[in-house]
Amino acid sequence: MTVTIYHNPACGTSRNTLAMIEGSGETPIVVEYLKAPPSRERLVELLAAMGLPARALLREKGTPYAALGLDDPKWSEEELIGFMLEHPILINRPIVESPKGTRLCRPSERVLDLLDNPAPEFAKEDGEVIFHPGGSAEGPTP
Fold it and tell me: Which of 11, 91, 114, 115 is catalytic?
């Protein structure tokens, strides 16, 4: 199975999601999207696969969202995508793609349903323990 994560290593949610993927035995393709932003076509594909409009993928905290006035409903889908391409920090993360689907994994445990062999429990960086009833007690299949 191929799993891809659009990742920001400075983000705790993104780090937890990556750790959950690796804990399932997967070696994901890691795209540090701030260093290698997706093309317009790729971003449109990701939005379509998640079934989200561009506005739902915008990140407000720690971004130029307010300075750009992106809360104004006047911005079209294409314009919002353009802002995300110009300022990749506006793209919320982490986005994970697997054969089981594509989703924005906020909170990080949203990734578990995208994995073949999720661990039955996972301790996040903040100490919160996530239990997954479909997880394999033996761990990932080699």
Answer: 11
Give catalytic status of residue 11 as yes or no: yes
Given a contact cutoff of 8 angstroms between Cβ atoms, the answer to whether 79 and 68 are in contact is: no
Strands 4-7 and 29-32, bridge-based pairing: parallel
How many Å apart are CA 79 and CA 77, to the nearest integer? 5
Question: Tokens 């400075």 sit at which residue?
Answer: 10
Beta bridge partners, 102, equal: 97
Record the pTM. Answer: 0.90
Return the CATH number at 107. 3.40.30.10
Q: In what order do the strands lie in the sheet with 29-32?
A: 29-32, 4-7, 95-98, 101-104
Domain that holds residue 101: 4-131
Contact 95, 103 (CB under 8 A): yes
Size of the chain in residues: 142
Within 10 Å of residue 116's Cβ, how many Cβ atoms? 16
Examine residue 46 and state whether it is found in any structural domain, yes or no.
Answer: yes
Which tens digits make up the pLDDT trace of 109-118?
999 999 999 9
Structure letter (DSSP) for residue 100:
T
